[in-house]
Amino acid sequence: MGKSTFIDAFGSNLTKLGNRVAVLAVDPSSGRSGGSILGDKTRMERLAVDEQAFIRPSPSAGVLGGVGRATRETMLLCEAAGYDVILVETVGAGQSEYMVADMVDVFLVLMLPGAGDELQGIKKGILEIADILAVNKADQDAGKARRAARDYASALHIMTAGDAAWKPPVLTVSGLQNQGLDALWETMEKHRHVMVEAGLFDQRRQDQRVKWMWAMVEDRLLTRFRNHEEVRRLLLGLESDVRNDRKTATQAAEDLLSAFGMGDLG
Ligand SMILES: Nc1nc2c(ncn2[C@@H]2O[C@H](COP(=O)(O)OP(=O)(O)OP(=O)(O)O)[C@@H](O)[C@H]2O)c(=O)[nH]1
Ligand SMILES: [Mg+2]
């Protein structure tokens, strides 16, 4: 996708404009070690040595919830420490995108220019949460990138409510050639302006905070549940009972909740 190259160029543009930039990553799949941290920094050569920038790789592999929470907390710390722009990278592996969308003010989706039929392959879900879409690597074949952008634009048009305060635009960019990145930043600033004017900027942050509160409560409760000794003992047999239709899902849930001391509630 060219993410590291993109962030290196985009982030460097931003520090040149006088911003302090932090780069965080959510990549629960990678099991990254010190080695790939270095790898990432070398792929962001300019930003890695930029005194106005701070690059923090993904917390080492763990459950997505934990990785997401750690990243969100670092993000808040960076904000409090006076970073003007915080870029949060996600690998694009399913759930992590939703998690990142739930912590940022603007969610940018990078796409590659592909054949027309590529559109069918893209996950519809990701377009639904995109605030801005950018077709990257447009330097390779400008015509192809423009065609892809047009396809994405019509897909987005169909999905966006007519009265939405913000309609996700599609841009073409090249991280490698630093093309279209100034226009992208202007679009992000415009997004912020529109959201503030519509009273949606604070609302989004409020909604996100409440969502995170519940995510943490659910997370902790579920962990406590799964670690409960009797629940663990029962689970071994119950899952296969449910799988093989020896027990209904409802009965099994009831057994587990009873073992946890929460039976007979429903
Ligand atoms: N032509 C062209 N090539 C690019 C562009 N951006 C990145 N590349 C190339 O694509 C390859 C992958 O780029 P990265 O920036 O490492 O991509 P990434 O998404 O960070 O990759 P992972 O971290 O491995 O997931 C490299 O060979 C880059 O030189 C671009 O805008 N145009
Ligand atoms: Mg990378």
UniProtKB/TrEMBL annotation:
Source species, domain of life: Bacteria
Repeat listed as a keyword: no
CC terms in the record's Gene Ontology section: cytoplasm
InterPro entries: GTPase_ArgK, P-loop_NTPase
SUPFAM superfamilies: P-loop containing nucleoside triphosphate hydrolases
GO molecular function: GTP binding; GTPase activity; kinase activity
Family according to the record: Belongs to the SIMIBI class G3E GTPase family. ArgK/MeaB subfamily.
Keywords: Kinase, Transferase
Name under which the protein is recorded: LAO/AO transport system kinase
